[in-house]
UniProtKB/TrEMBL annotation:
Protein name: Short chain dehydrogenase/reductase
Top-level taxonomic group: Eukaryota
Family assignment from sequence similarity: Belongs to the short-chain dehydrogenases/reductases (SDR) family.
Entry annotated with the keyword Hydrolase: no
Disordered: annotated span: 48-70
Entry's Gene Ontology BP terms: fatty acid biosynthetic process
Entry's Gene Ontology molecular function annotations: oxidoreductase activity, acting on the CH-OH group of donors, NAD or NADP as acceptor; quinone binding
PROSITE patterns assigned: ADH_SHORT
Entry keywords, A to Z: NADP, Oxidoreductase
Keyword Chloroplast on entry: no
InterPro entries (alphabetical): NAD(P)-bd_dom_sf, Sc_DH/Rdtase_CS, SDR_fam
Length: 272
């Protein structure tokens, strides 16, 4: 039986992170060929690539490990790791290779046509508004929200494709020390809903995923008393494993009727 993402080209921005890589790994497991993007993509490659199921062309048993590009309008022949700093707007435009862009890069560094795009790059905030520098506030909004908007603008999505924007429960629920973060993630939800209307003519589905706390550095870096308070408010009394978030992303990517889904995955914390 064909795997649900067999032959699909999936691009994950923020793929070196704990959640982004879990999603990339789950998609590769289901037959996809991956483009993994992040600032440290090249350095992380030796560690991450062996964990990905090698890509094989649908209908064959031939797995490919060479990073060969089949051209601007083809599907990559193997998983690729492409360095990208989403703070650099010109790089987003160049790497996603928007048609007609004067800054189109050499074949091999362009992402090319995409079936599933995951926007998962994010930075956090753990300080009260008055104690957060203007520069950090701007970085949070630029990385979490503006970059998501620009990547979606410049990505060459194939008809019937799917975009998954990783937001956060904080986008719908307050959180101490997370003002700009919450605003950026709320923005991602609003953007997702509006983009869903604009992508309708090409049957591209657009969804947002809202994890609560996930077993990651964002969680482990919290003070013990803050963790205790969150756990007390979470009916399941635990945080999510990254693989559980990846499973939700797989649902959004593979269920053809999932569109404008704003999917909470928070163990019930949103009910508190
Ligand atoms: N962990 C949680 O509890 C939790 C809960 C809800 C939502 N989320 C959201 O889930 C997403 C992933 O979180 P995570 O826990 O996996 O965080 P993480 O491990 O810190 O990963 C963050 C990812 O974003 C990338 N990134 C950051 N700044 C970037 C930039 N300027 N350009 C390109 N890539 C950049 C990082 O790669 P490089 O450093 O290599 O660039 C990394 O791949 C974030 O959007 C976060 O807000 C997380």
């Amino acid at each position: 039986m064909a795997l649900p993402l067999a032959g699909k080209h999936c691009a994950v921005v923020g793929a070196t992170g704990i959640i982004g890589f879990s999603i990339a790994k789950a998609f590769a497991q289901q037959g996809a060929v991956l483009t993994l993007l992040a600032r440290s993509a090249a350095e992380a490659r030796p560690r991450l690539e062996p964990q990905l199921r090698p890509y094989s062309l649908p209908g064959t048993t031939t797995t490919t490990t060479t990073t060969k590009d089949t051209g601007d309008f083809g599907v990559p022949a193997a998983h690729r790791f492409i360095p990208l700093d989403v703070a650099d707007r010109e790089s987003i435009k160049a790497i996603f290779g928007a048609r007609g862009s004067s800054s189109k890069p050499q074949t091999g560094t362009a992402v090319g046509p995409i079936d599933v795009l995951v926007n998962c790059a994010g930075i956090t905030q753990t300080s009260l508004l008055m104690r957060t520098s203007d520069e950090h506030l701007s970085d949070i909004v630029d990385t979490n929200l503006l970059a998501t908007i620009l990547v979606c603008k410049h990505a060459k999505m194939r008809p019937n494709g799917c975009i998954i924007n990783v937001s956060s429960l904080m986008g719908t629920k307050g959180g101490l020390g997370a003002t700009a973060y919450a605003a950026s993630k709320a923005g991602v939800i609003g953007f997702t809903r509006a983009l869903c209307r604009e992508m309708a003519s090409r049957s591209i589905r657009v969804n947002a995923l809202l994890p609560g706390w996930v077993n990651s550095s964002m969680w482990t870096d919290l003070k013990p008393e803050i963790k205790q308070a969150f756990l007390k408010d979470t009916p399941l009394n635990r945080v999510a494993e990254p693989a559980e978030v990846a499973d939700a992303a797989l649902f959004l990517a593979s269920n053809g009727f999932a569109n404008n889904c704003v999917l909470n995955l928070d163990g019930g914390l949103s009910a508190a």
